[in-house]
Structure formats: structure tokens, C-alpha cells
Amino acid sequence: MVRERDKNGHLKAGIRLPGWDYCKPWFYMITLVVKRRRPILGEIADGRLVPSPLGAAVARAWKDLGRVFPQVEPCQFAVMPEHFHGIIWVHERLSSPLGEVIRSFKIACTKANLALAGGAPILIDGSATFWFPGLYDTILFGKGQLKAMTRYVLRNAERRWAVMQNPDLFKVTRSLDFSTLIESALGECAAAPNGAMPGAHGAGVMPGAHGAGVMPGAHGAPMCDAIGNAFLAELPNKLLIQISRRATPGEIEAKIGEALLFGNRGGAIVSGCISPGEQAVARAVREAGLPLIAIVPRGFGPYFKPSGAYFDACAAGKLLMLSPFPQISKHDKLTRERCFGINAVAAAICGKDPAAIRYSGSQPGQLTR
After folding, report:
1. What is the rounded CA–CA span in Å between residue 342 and residue 361?
2. Residue 12: phi, psi to the nearest 5?
């Protein structure tokens, strides 16, 4: 699915999943954003939200949704200074799509704004309607996704506080030039057409749909957007983890052991975290509190933050996330070219020639990604 972008190239909100029946009983995660991201709903202090009168009114309006719409049950929610997260359970089929329920909630919030004590509503662009048009929704399909989203919502203020205490670790830095780190491994990039990076076995990663090509920097070396502890890239010892999707459980366990031993000796693990084996290694590294450099295939949006265990690793200074690609949606297909580009960047950061890489668990000469 190709999502529309605004004039700054950022993905727009409000794009529903094509073909999905939004009257259908299900669990949904809803996110609303205040216009201009004005922090009018409260402030974060000591890991929790201290709501403003309007923020308290928003919480009441959410809790009242089940009374207004008996087919739904508003579940865990988080009012934040400039946005709102809420999980909603549609337990009976709706007569109108879920968007109408959320529209009613937004109207109730506007009425609460108009009814603020003193008769002085908060105006943004001259209007008491303070929510940005549309909404973000996540349909909670996957096993364990409801539990993960519930934890995400409940820890929202705590995470924001961690960001406030460690702002440099959670700021996306655009277009870092890694040429000094990887120039020797990617010297042939200068001769590649359009500054494309070499992929596995020297295959070029060419620009394509949604800006699939790697962002070229000095001498053809990649420019990477980054978030996390940039000093991890300067560690002298880095271990590249690339594992075939065909790797056996035993091969994956061996790689986990190798990574943990390397990390405990002061090195950083580098991986695209694409295959199940790579994800298993990254998970073990994070859980052990060891340094991880993860190459991200979908880029970083303007308000990107790592989530879950990645957030905790970032707050601890044990994570660096890099992406040589412009942002695409989670609904956009992850192309073969992007996978090659991810592998090439991971290899190059470790000082290896991407053309010489063989994947753990694969047969010699086979490309199994």
C-alpha cells in the first residue's frame, strides 16, 4: 500500500487499512494528535502525566465512550501533553464504522474545551477543536500484540520522562556520513551508478519506488539517519550477525552464544535484524544489556521513537539504530533491494566487503535471504 505524504515528505495520518470492515468486533489501538503538537493536555513530571483541566476532561470523555456506544469498551489509555493513545474493544458489531465512534469522542473533547472554567477555551488556529484531523489506528491482529500495546500505553509517560532525561539518545540525527568508518569496505561505491551501494555478491542497490536506494554521501559512502548512542559506531570491535532464514535452531543458538561472548568482552553486535535468527540474536543481546547496532530498513519518521525493549536499550545507551533509507510505511513491502542494502551497510560498518559475506546456515554461494 502506498501512503500519501505531506509537503515535507512525512507520511500522513488517517489512512485506513484497505478492505478492512471497521464495524467488525476487534481490538484497536487509536492515536490522536493535538494540532501543531501543542502541549495543552498536561505535563510530564517524575515519569507520570500531571493533567491539565482539559487533559482530565479528555480522560473522562474516553471513559464515557462505553456509555454512549454500548457496543464498545474503552480500555487502557494514555493522555499525553500533545497526543492521546487509547485501546478500544469493539465487542459487538457497530452500525457505523469505528471512525464515527472516535469522531464522537473528539466532539465530546471539543465541548469539554468550550466548557472550561472561566469560559476561556484553548484555541488553536482560532478553533476550540484541538485535535488534528483524522486518526492513526492499529488493528491488533498478532498474537501478543494486545498485551504489547497495553504495556506501551501504560508506560507512555514513563518513556517520555526517560526521553526528557536523555534527549540526545532519542533524537533522530539526519544524514550522518559514515564514509570515514567504512570507506575501505565500500570504496567501489564511488563508481556505482547513482551512488548506489553494492549489495550481496556485488549486486547494486538502485533507487526505486519510495526511495528504495541508499542515500549517497561523500565518495559514494552511505548517509545514515541515526537514533541512539552514536558512540557505539566508534567501538573498535564489532561482530556482524547475518543469519539465513534456513538456519537451524542449533545454528541460531550457536550464533547467540557467539554474540553474547563477544558483547561481554566489550564489542558491539551489528545486524539488520531481518531474519528470525537475527531477531533472536538481537533479542538475546538486548536482554543481556549488551551494545547493539541495528540497521533499520524502513527509515525514521519525524517523530520516531524506538519501542518496547528497543526503547529500554536506547535509554540505557546500549542501542544505535541506523537507516540509510528514506521512510516508508510499515504497510509498504520490504523489497529485496532494501534487504541487500541493509546487509551491505551492516557489513561495511564492521569493515567487511559485502561481496564476501556468506550467511550462517546457508549453502555456499546461495542467497537465502
Report:
1. 19
2. -80, 155
Residue range 81-138, pLDDT digits in tens? 999 999 999 999 999 999 999 999 999 999 999 999 777 899 999 999 999 998 888 8
| Residue listed under C-alpha cell 547467540 | 256
Global confidence as pTM? 0.59
The CB density around residue 89, as the number of other CB atoms within 10 Å, is 16
Question: 169-356 sits in which CATH class?
Answer: alpha beta
Ranges of H-type helices in the chain: 53-63, 65-68, 98-114, 145-154, 156-165, 179-182, 249-264, 276-287, 308-315, 336-349
- Please report where in the chains the cell 504495556 appears, as a residue: 151
Q: Which three cell numbers stand for residue 233?
A: 559506531
Amino acid at 181: L
Residue matched to cell numbers 536499550: 313
The residues spanned by each domain of the chain are 26-165, 169-356
3-state secondary structure of 268: strand
- pLDDT band for position 178 (cuts 50, 70, 90): low
CA-closest candidate to residue 25, choices 77, 86, 94: 94
Residue 369: pLDDT above 50?
no
DSSP code for 143: T
Contacts of 328 (CB under 8 A, 6+ apart): 210, 211, 298, 299
DSSP state of 34: B
The closest of 340, 288, 344, 338 to 318, measured between CA atoms, is 288
Question: Comparing C-alpha atoms, which of 203, 142, 206 is closest to residue 354?
Answer: 203
Q: What is the DSSP letter of 172?
A: P
CATH topology of domain 26-165: Alpha-Beta Plaits (3.30.70)
Residues 285 and 259: their CA atoms lie apart, in Å, by 7
pLDDT, tens digit, for every residue of 234-276?
777 889 999 999 999 999 999 999 999 888 877 899 999 989 9
**Is-contact 193 73, C-beta < 8 A?**
no
CA distance 193 to 212: 14
Q: What is the average pLDDT across 179-197?
A: 39
